[in-house]
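note to self — DONT lose this again. spent like an hour looking for the file last time. sequence + predicted structure for the chain T wanted, 486 res
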Amino acid sequence: MMTFYTVINWLLLFGYWLLIAGVTLKVMIKRRAVPSSMAWLLIIYILPLVGIITYLLFGELNLGKRRAERSKAFWPSAAKWMEDMKGTPCLFTNRSSEVARSVLQLCEHRQGMGGLKGNGIQLLTSADDALKSLIHDITLAKNNIEIVFYVWQSGGLVEQVGEALMASSRRGVRCRLMLDSAGSLSFFRSPYPALMRDAGVHVVEALHVSILRVFLRRMDLRQHRKMVLIDNYIAYSGSMNMVDPRLFKQDAGVGQWIDIMARMEGPVARAMGIIFACDWAIETGEHILPSLNTNLIPFKPTEDHNSIQVIASGPGSPEGVIHQALLISIYSARKTLVMTTPYLIPSDDLLQAICTAAQRGVEVHIIVPRHNDSILVNWASRAFFSELLEAGVLIHQFEGGLLHTKSVLVDRQLSLVGTVNLDMRSLWLNFEITLVIDHNAFGYDLARVQEDYLARSQLIEATIWSNRPYWQRIIERLFYFFSPLL
């Protein structure tokens, strides 16, 4: 009997170490940043069972077999669509500002399509203005409406957006609505999905969260894009979720969320349409390529630099392209660089680029919220402040609410706005979208918005920061340890 139990114990011990060895190999074989790999290995060896389970859940970018097959099946038709679109050369710019030239070349080579010209673009800095403009455009829609958001929370003006969408569907406009399962959990538990489907709106719950499938797909991979497309001509994107900030997370103690949205008219809507089509195909298997009928897009010739490039990230998109675009943009700065983000957990490359910009004489400002809805990120981001301040970066803490705007402005000319936070999750994991805008008028408008943020912020003094309590430094370093995994 003792021999039997001894064999069982040895088998269990052997299986235990075999499992650890197998997961260790998975960590080491996949090429990733060294700090990330080291963090995973330390967690696995310090807390083996917890570390192994955590890695299997969150360690690799696993879209799931069915979604991966749908993505693979979609791209041949998407590639042909892009080739056909490039057959209309008048849509693409052959001019750019000096500061934007490198990043636009990168996007063209990596994504297969150049920057688009002839777009009208308007920066919306008020949630009321953005929602009212959206309601107006949805009401006037004639052919199709495609919408994707991370969060949709009913209440306030969002109710009117939903009513306008259902009314448009009832009068024959094709309406598709895709919302993230985790971000819009309260929406999917409400009567609204049924009401919208009854009105003819095709509602899809993206990346459905299911405990039964936690080991088959990475559950924290989220659909984080924010896009509205109307009639293949009007497009919205930015940092704002489909929420009324006067009602959203009012019990979090961080104030109202502050966001921006860009409203665009022109060829850029079709480029964003192919991104939505890919997301839709991944979730439903249905291919809905945007129309290439040039009559649907009145071309607006312009004499000044005016081009927009759309960058998508996430499974199925060129890996790391938004990260590369940020790096190139930062290195292109010659005079000023202003960045706003609610979550500051930069990669080593981004941190080095920002510090180098300040050290070579660029006036660098980073604006982050003083109070954050994520305690983990709030403490981890503070671990980067000392290095940034020592390099001469000016860090401002916004005190007028939770600054949720994601923006980069280089030399008041090149703007990057969209859904991407300066953290690992946005840069390497989630489905995100960034607009690269080479336009001096838009840059001027964004600069005024950022100047307003600066006026409502408190500058962190390097000397005062260096004298902060020692216990705070310990907490910062503790959470910094997990920063490669955030």
